[in-house]
Amino acid sequence: MGEFLAAGLGAELLRPWEGEGSPHALLEQQFSTFSGWVLLMASGIATRFLSGLPVSKLSDLAVVVLDASGHTKSVQRQDGASMFRIDIATGKAWASIAMGAASRVLTQRAKDLPAFFGALAATGNGKFIPQTGAVLIKDAQGQVIGAAGASGGTGDEDEAICIAGIEAAGLQSG
Predict the structure, then answer these.
(1) 132-169 tens-digit pLDDT
(2) Which of 14, 69, 89, 165 meets the CB 3.0–4.6 Å disulfide criterion with 64?
(3) CATH topology of domain 36-173
(4) Is residue 3 helix, strand or coil?
């Protein structure tokens, strides 16, 4: 399947299991050099948030990864998570992309300018949620390529989950 897709897209097929060193290190090295959005990166960010959950005891979470235009690239939801989790995680990430800042910054701005942020929320038709729990995703050159948002923990926990997933994918959070 990989060879078929690579041929059809005119792309190079990366086989990390055939190189020297660890596959994880090779993938991390290769992903940090891509200038465009890669679906696999989005899926990696969305699924890596699960790795720390058994240790942290957080449960019933959802994480959403959006591209730089605010379109969904990947969604993961734990069993038992409320039906609102995905919508809230999406709204946090969407607000970050729309305003070019981590949602922690937007939370404070919303307190300082409630009428303006109320208007933004209305204009966004419910997709704009300026609450802590989302961060921008940046490539190796510092360009914003998307945002990750989480819901289910405290705002600080949601933010930490997003940052951990982004860093595990070899990207930068902001």
Answers:
(1) 999 999 988 889 999 999 998 899 989 988 898 888 77
(2) 89
(3) Beta-Lactamase (3.30.450)
(4) helix
